[in-house]
Amino acid sequence: QLVAAGDIDYLVFDYLAETTMAILAAARAKKPEMGYASDFVDSAMRQVLPQVMARGIKVIANAGGIHPQGCADALHALAASMNLAPRIAVVEGDDVSALMATLREEGVRDMFTGEALPLRVSSANAYLGAFPVARALAAGAQIVITGRGVDSAVTLGALIHEFGWTPADHDRLAG
Q1: Distance (Å, rounded) from C-alpha 86 to C-alpha 75?
Q2: Of 116, 149, 143, whose CA–CA distance to 130 is shortest?
Q3: How many angstroms separate the CA atoms of 19 and 159, rounded?
Q4: DSSP E strands, the chain
Q5: Among residues of the chain, what percentage have pLDDT more than 90?
Q6: pTM of the entire structure?
């Protein structure tokens, strides 16, 4: 509805929660190409991609889950099937799974329980902020796909880009 009737510059999708991340990790364990919110590609973007491209609307979504590149690959395939070629940026860096063994060796403990970190985890992700989203937009991305970030990052990234806010603009960022 927003794409069809709204006068918008950005269309923002928020797909992730802790439970969602666990579901996506289980999906990727079964099929390595998965691990992202497939309905973002198969439903949401299938419906609006031609109009988004024609109207110059930028899309930002944390639909990448634990496999943001997989989400971008699927979106590229969808776009190609529609004879479209959007510039898609992938924000990476939230997957910290490779650090788990080192953290255990260094004695890092669960912040809530004080227990040792588990030997096996389905995924381990750091919450990224909004500035990587803003940088992707500044580099010319029409669509930005992220993995785990703070809830505000997808919206705040657009505002930072649009208004030129810096990390020192505390009041604007907080607002």
Answers
A1: 9
A2: 149
A3: 28
A4: 10-13, 58-61, 88-91, 143-146
A5: 82
A6: 0.92
